[in-house]
Amino acid sequence: MSVKVMMPSSDKKEIVDLCAQVRGLLQDFEHLGINEVFIQDPPHDLPRCPIGARPSGDEKMACRPETLEEIAAELHNCQRCSLSKRRRNVVFGVGDPKAQLVFVGEGPGREEDEKGEPFVGEAGRLLDRILFAMGLRRDQVYICNVVKCRPPGNRDPLPEEIEHCEPYLRRQLAAINPRVIVALGRFAVQTLLRDSAPISRLRGHWREYEGIALMPTFHPAFLLRNPAMKREVWEDMKQVLHRLRELRG
């Protein structure tokens, strides 16, 4: 049985243009009497780029982006704030490490703390239904939170707790490098956007985070308490799907 793989037209054009450039370059070499081209093997075991730095083409400055596994390893026994004293597990994140779409929530709840996985409680099950309606699965996106340890009694994260955890969130997003971020709830939106405006005013309007399109919307836990607002969130998700289709060409 043969399987036909469909490639986006933008990717096809890019490959055709690249082949034409290579063909022209080889013809130029032939006219110059150059019959062999030696390609140096890329360096192996490149060092990890310093935090905040990007890979460079300069051989002396060559480095590689850090991986989610490396970031998670740093957080395994984190004691940077008081949340570490009561937690059962650091809730780092789950999903595709190269996802085009990332959902960022606020912080883990009781079930998330027990399982070490974000959005596995009732709010998580609602998020799963939202993903299903979008034609997506958990393993096709990436899901994480601003803070990685459960605040006692599921209270709101304190400013100092966000301050300690946010650098790891920023590194997560840099490692994934998604095309679109959906920020779920007030703390996620205000933290990523550095904007203290109410979530009711911010949601539904495209913003940017580090050059990445960001859609603010309500948290699934809020929807459980206010089911009438599900319509607004679905309108936001339709915008997200449209933006992803545009970016894919």
Structural account:
The chain is built from nine helices and six strands, in the order ααββααβαβααββαα. Helix content is 42%, strand content 10%. 29% of the residues are buried. The longest helix is centred in the first third of the chain and has 23 residues, at 9-31. Strands 1-3-2-4-6-5 form a six-stranded mixed sheet, sandwiched between helices. The protein is globular. Residues 1-7 have low confidence and may be disordered. The chain has 249 residues and is an alpha/beta fold. The chain has a single domain (64-248), classed as 3-Layer(aba) Sandwich (Uracil-DNA Glycosylase, subunit E), CATH 3.40.470.10.
Summarize the entry for a quick read:
By secondary structure, the protein is of the alpha/beta class. The chain has helices at residues 9-31, 68-75, 110-115, 122-133, 159-176, 186-193, 199-202, 220-225, 230-248, and strands at 94-95, 101-105, 142-145, 180-184, 207-209, 212-217.
